[in-house]
Design goal:
By secondary structure, the protein is α+β, with helices and mostly antiparallel strands. Helix content is 32%, strand content 24%. The strands form six sheets. Strands 4-3-2-1-5 form a five-stranded mixed β-sheet, covered by helices on one side.
């Protein structure tokens, strides 16, 4: 299943605790990149749905893509950031902890808080349990080492393109309710709930030989077109990488990063017949069509940005741990959750389909609300600890959060940021676990999956605090004259 997995202790012995010994470098900007395959060999349980799926082969390999950045000022002060984009569903606690413990032991010279793990949110990757986490660590840590040790004096460029990849997935009806993937061909359908962000933000990086070694591509859409597939699949990021590598070199490292897209999906929500006709005329699969759009947007940026390459004025990385108020559970929420859990548990006990209907997963989903309600007796105002990374690269800034963050919040950050271009990246490492949905106020009013209490640890109040805290950090990196 996980052929090639090594015991982490052996890995550290190979790398050596001093593998990143202090170096003397001239002031400047240094960049390195590397990739590694994190595809397991045999059948595994796939993440992303309530029901059980066991993989039946590989459609496209899932990858970890690493970008290592370092800046040395004239006075010798150094800052760095190491970004690892992974083709997985999220960054749960066990995965985050395993990678970070491996990082600390193998590379004690660097600050673990400068390490950023992000997920593309494919629904066709393995469950992130202990075994898969250790397997990934055995692949990712050497890739980080390769990226760091290959860094050389480099340049960067950036730009903004656009592509229709994401669609708001929440339909609003005449009675004010919202339904995820609700029928839009209904007399009661009134609108899609929120805005869509069609930005394709791209960062390009060259090494000392003036060779393009990496791209970071920011699309506000989870990679879940193939979310019900029984094959391991990087989803649309697989063909995106293939197409970009065909154009710019097979060893190009492409980091796909997911923007604020908690209410977004690549699934077509209306005008489906027209879209499908065009896809068929192009003789493309749906993931290939999405990749075509993304790559076209990147190439349009490349046409003008390639000539603007420069040494960034600065690279600075900030990390902050914050607390957000948990979404309040009402007594009515509690009673409904218990009733729903009991119904699903009964259905699971009576089911003969091996949990293909997902009753056990749904029961646990509801039971967690009951457990949270019971804890309110001890702490009526619980807080949710999380963390934020903010990385400035010249005139651009990247801001992370661990949630499936609704697009409204990401657009607020972009609108108010002082940077010339702002990249918001969701589903990054957190302090507790993976990313639950963080809904907007209007979504909470509409209800439905993704905005009900079962889907959230933090509500719109906490989302606004996250926006303000993130912008405070951004403003630290872009001081006003």
């Amino acid at each position: 299943m996980y052929r090639g997995m090594v015991i982490l202790g052996s890995l550290f012995w190979m790398l050596g605790p001093g593998c990143w010994a202090a170096e003397t470098k001239a002031p400047g900007f240094y960049v390195g990149a590397a990739s590694c395959d994190i595809t397991p060999d045999g059948p595994v349980s796939l993440a992303g749905q309530f029901y059980t799926r066991i993989s039946e082969g590989v459609a496209t390999p899932i990858m970890a893509n690493v970008l290592a950045l370092e800046s040395i000022a004239a006075d010798g002060k150094q800052d760095h950031a190491i970004w690892v984009s992974l083709d997985i569903g999220g960054i749960p606690l066990i995965f985050n902890t395993t990678i970070r413990e491996a990082f600390r032991e193998a590379f004690p010279q660097l600050d673990v808080n400068k390490l950023i793990l992000s997920a593309t949110h494919t629904h066709s990757a393995p469950l992130r349990g202990e075994e898969f986490s250790e397997f990934c660590a055995s692949r990712v840590i050497p890739a980080i080492k390769q990226a760091w040790e290959s860094r050389s004096a480099g340049k960067y460029a950036y730009g903004l393109g656009h592509a229709v990849v994401a669609y708001n997935r929440r339909a609003i009806y005449a009675n004010g309710t919202a339904v995820m993937y609700g029928n839009t061909n209904s007399p009661n359908f009134r609108a899609m709930e929120g805005m869509e962000d069609h930005d394709v933000g791209t960062l390009f990086f060259w090494n000392a030989e003036d060779k393009l070694i990496a791209m970071m591509v920011n699309v506000a859409c989870p990679a879940q077109e193939m979310e019900h597939s029984l094959k391991i699949d990087a989803d649309f990021w697989g063909p995106v990488r293939t197409m970009l590598q065909k154009e710019h070199g097979e060893d190009l490292v492409v980091l796909g990063v997911c923007g604020a897209a908690g209410d977004m999906s690549p699934h077509i929500r209306y005008r489906k017949a027209a879209e499908e006709r065009m896809r068929a005329l192009r003789k493309l699969s749906r993931t290939e069509e999405l990749a075509r759009r993304i790559v076209r947007a990147v190439e349009e940026v490349w046409e003008v940005a390639e000539a603007t390459r420069e040494v960034p004025s600065t690279v600075r990385s900030l990390y902050q741990e914050i607390e957000l108020p948990e979404r309040k559970i009402t007594e009515q929420d509690y009673k409904e959750a218990v009733a729903n859990a009991e119904r699903e548990e009964k259905a699971a006990a009576e089911s003969k389909d091996g949990d293909k209907s997902g009753h056990s997963g749904k029961a646990r989903w509801h039971r967690r609300i009951a457990q949270r309600w019971e804890k309110l007796a001890e702490n009526p105002n619980p807080m949710y600890p999380t963390c934020v990374h903010v990385v400035r690269i010249g005139d651009t800034v990247l801001c992370t959060n661990q949630f499936e963050l609704y697009t409204d919040f990401g657009v607020q950050m972009k609108s108010r940021s002082p940077a010339k271009q702002t990249f918001v990246v969701q589903l990054c490492d957190g302090l507790i676990g993976g990313g639950t949905y963080l809904p907007s106020e209007r979504a909470m009013q509409g209800g439905g999956y993704g905005a009900v209490i079962q889907s959230n640890m933090v509500g719109a109040e906490g989302g606004q605090i996250l926006v303000e805290k993130t912008l405070e950090m951004v403003n630290q990196l872009f001081p006003r004259p």
